[in-house]
Design a protein that fits this description.
The protein is mostly beta strands. The protein is built from 4 helices and 14 strands. It folds into 2 domains: 74 residues, Beta Barrel (Barwin-like endoglucanases); 106 residues, no CATH class.
């Protein structure tokens, strides 16, 4: 079976616990824009991610605060920082690459820097409709200027909006833009 799915490009960003957010900011998180994933938003607040070898400024916080900390970057960002973060599922970042997170108020060190695996979000109803289960691997068939296939992992959540998430390196490799429709292959 083939089904069209929207592609969302996930630029470098950070998720913070309330405790760590409060170490870095003196005010409540403010919303810049809603994201397609229901209840999530791009915050106005940004941080600097730093290592001994490099830094990335203006890294956007994705809100609201979470139960875990996680820094998500692309491989090209990792080269700037001089680190080798693992590719992992969201929420499984403990013990990953170490970075310093800096704001005007303060700084913290986190061992939660990853390259997020490619994934497709959906809610339970959509998963049932497609006959897929959480963590199942599917194929994204890209039919644009630079054709190709990518493996994506199913992420089923109650508020999941049906969308594939690729990092900027993957999107750039296939000349993709956010919002394009590509084919998801279900076997």
């Amino acid at each position: 079976m083939e089904v069209n799915v929207s592609v969302g490009i996930s630029a470098r960003h950070i998720h913070l616990t309330k405790e760590n957010y409060e170490k870095l900011f003196d005010h409540e998180m403010t919303k810049k824009a809603d994201l397609n994933q229901i209840g999530q938003f791009a915050a106005n607040e940004t941080v600097t991610i730093k290592t001994s070898k490099g830094e990335l400024k203006n890294v956007r916080i994705v809100g609201p605060c979470r139960e875990y900390n996680q820094v998500e970057i692309a491989a090209s960002d990792a080269r700037v920082l001089g680190i080798d973060p693992p590719v992992r599922r969201s929420g499984e970042s403990s013990g990953a690459a170490v970075v310093e997170v800096i704001t005007e108020k303060g700084k913290i060190e986190l061992d939660n820097c990853i390259i997020a695996n490619r994934h497709v979000h959906m809610n339970p109803k959509k998963a049932e409709e497609l006959g897929v289960v959480n963590r199942e691997l599917l194929t994204l068939e890209i039919d644009g200027t630079k054709k190709g296939n990518l493996e994506v992992e199913v992420v089923v959540t109650d508020n999941g909006y049906f969308e594939v998430h690729l990092d900027t390196d993957d999107a750039n490799a296939f000349l993709l833009k956010s919002g394009v429709q590509e084919k998801l292959i279900i076997r």
